[in-house]
Amino acid sequence: MADDALDAVLRLVAEGRLTADEAGPILDALDAGQRPRSTSDDPRPTGAAATSPGGGPGRAIRVEITEGGRKVVNLRVPLALGRAALSRIPGLSESMADRIREAIDAGVSGPVLVVNDGPEDTVRIVVE
Q1: Buried b / exposed e along 31-41 (16+ C-beta atoms within 10 A)
Q2: Per residue in 82-118, pLDDT tens?
Q3: Does pTM top 0.85 for this prediction?
Q4: Which of 2, 103, 126 is nearest to 48 (CA)?
Q5: Among the listed residues 116, 110, 117, the one whose alpha carbon sits nearest the alpha carbon of residue 125
Q6: CA 112 to CA 9: how far, in whole Å?
Q7: What is the DSSP code (8-state) at residue 73?
Q8: Left, alpha or beta for 41 (phi > 0: left; psi -120 to 50: alpha)?
């Protein structure tokens, strides 16, 4: 997906001119236009929208961050928005982002990344 198009959609969400639910299908369409075509008889692009079972509307990514045993972030965003934002999460390496994308493409549900930094500090990314 082109960075300028992604930035434009994310800016509209940040400004409140577009909800995260409204941004999801737009990001899906932008992402589908950038993916290579499958070599099978299926003309749809490869990826989560084409291959993941149950990958239709309603799927989301939840980010939970706990510091000092207290939950400080509990964010749920549509799958397309979360997938697009993976490359913009500070501290998330490209290899971790790729693993999360692979889990999404495979249709995995549940925790896809759990990082424990001490007994009371945790970051969890869950596909719902």
Answers
A1: bbeeeeeeeee
A2: 877 887 777 788 888 888 888 888 888 889 888 888 8
A3: no
A4: 103
A5: 110
A6: 25
A7: E
A8: alpha
Q: Given CA atoms 72, 100, 92, 35 in this order, what sign does their dihedral have?
A: negative
Token digits of residue 96? 């971790």
- The CA-based angle 9-111-123, given to 5 degrees, is 75
H/E stretch holding 113: strand 110-116
Tally helices (H) and strands (E) across the chain. 5, 4
Cα gap 112→26, rounded to integer Å: 24
Task: Give the pLDDT confidence score for residue 97 in this predicted structure.
Answer: 87
Q: Which residues of the chain have pLDDT under 70?
A: 1-3, 32-58
